[in-house]
Amino acid sequence: MTILDKTVDDGAVLSEATAGDYLELMKPRVMSLVVFTAFVGMVAAPGALNPFVAAVSVISIAIGAGASGALNMWYDADVDAVMSRTASRPVPSGRILPEQALAFGLVLSTLSVMTLGVFVNWLAGAMLAFTIFFYAVIYTMWLKRWTPQNIVIGGAAGSFPPMIGWAAATGAVSLESVILFLIIFLWTPPHFWALALFKSGDYQRAGIPMMPNVAGETSTKRQMFGYSIALAVAGVLPSILGYAGVAYGVAAAALGVGFVWYALQVLLMPQEDRAMRPAKALFGYSLLYLFAVFALYLADCVAARMFAGQLAAVGVGS
Amino acid sequence: MSVMDIETITPTEAQKKARRSRNVAIGLALGAFVVLVYVISIVKLGSAVLSRPM
After folding, report:
1. Residue A310's pLDDT is what?
2. Contacts from A75-80 at CB under 8 Å and sequence distance 24+?
């Protein structure tokens, strides 16, 4: 009997993918925004959720978002490979095989939806399942390569987490949670198109019909400005509709004015400006805006609840 | 080659290191999931977790 000893350096046989590569499949930066917005939706909702059940909800939503990221990276490996921003992702760089990313995404999708459904409630579980389906199938497989409205419609997937958080806490959908959805939904186009403006060469090469490549930069800038105004208004809606305080309204309005100002700088950006500093500035500010608006909304809800608690303690309103 | 030939594979250092990293991550994730299911059962059922038909 002979024993054949081979040193295998073929990645297809023995993987060199580390746990970190799999974590990267889950798009941790997108996940952090999902965790934050879902958390705000959950805490803002009326009624007290057990802290541990709340933690399980947030973890499930985060894993579900990560799973849809993995499915996106499985399907998009071909276009990711030709774009500078995404060429080093685990699948196009060859560290993880496409079928491994697919299996990882499917297993985590199932686990996260089942966990949320069984342990929290099935409305939240169903909404998470729909969000994963919407991002992986409707956006990634269909819209992204087909229409310049890809990220507008696809943005719904990223807008669902606060609604899922709210549904986890209350078992229902409400106007307040729909407005949180609306804020992220209107935020997505100017945020993403700012990136698409200074990365338009990448999208051109990959054959992705982003708005600047299809409708031109001028039209894109105009649409971004329009969405920015709508976003600035939506950000103040919680105060206008009377369920958030004046302090929130004033701060959200100021942040919204800032957003419109940055979008205006992009609108006024000359065609020959290839450094596109205003677009990069808007992209950076958009992240700050979303974080700040949600943090303020959270603070407003917590403060209102504490104030109501104090009033109850001194016997007012009882 | 006789019928008894056995093919073995010697992983490279990088492959061994990556495998270990994946194993640790899977172990931690499974452990965390077990703890999660246990604690949430207690949280949701409370003392009722003990009441069952004999």
Report:
1. 86
2. A75/A136, A75/A140, A75/A141, A76/A140, A76/A144, A77/A101, A79/A145, A79/A206, A79/A207, A79/A208
Both structure tokens of A252: 């959200």
Q: What is d(CA A297, CA A44) in angstroms, rounded to the nearest whole number?
A: 8
Interval A212-230 mean pLDDT: 96
pTM value is 0.90
What is the greatest pairwise CA distance in chain B? 65
Distances (CA, A) of A46 to A183, A301, A313: 20, 10, 19
Q: Which residues of B touch A (CB under 8 A)?
A: 1-2, 4-12, 14-15, 17-19, 21-22, 24-25, 33, 36, 39-40, 43-44
Q: Which residue of B has its CA nearest to A9?
A: B12
Cβ neighbours around A179 below 10 Å, total? 20
Tokens standing for A66?
């990560």
According to DSSP, the residues that pair with A108 across neighbouring strands are none
Statement: residue B2 has pLDDT above 70: no
Q: Could you tell me the pLDDT band of residue A12, with boundaries at 50, 70 and 90?
A: very low
User: Which residues touch A43 (CB under 8 Å, ≥6 apart)?
Assistant: A54, A165, A169, A298, A301, A302
Of B10, B21, B24, the CB nearest to A7: B10
Is A16 an interface residue toward B (CB < 8 Å)?
Answer: yes
pLDDT tens profile A97-133: 999 999 999 999 999 999 999 999 999 999 999 999 9
Which whole number is the average pLDDT over A271-291?
A: 95
Instruction: Give the lowest-confidence range in A256-260, A301-305, B25-29.
Output: A301-305
Three-state DSSP class for B53?
coil
Over residues A248-263, mean pLDDT = 98
Q: Is A40 exposed, middle or buried (0-12, 13-18, 19+ CB in 10 A)?
A: buried
Nearest Cα to Cα of residue A208 among A266, A159, A151, A282: A151
Nearest CA in chain A to B15: A16
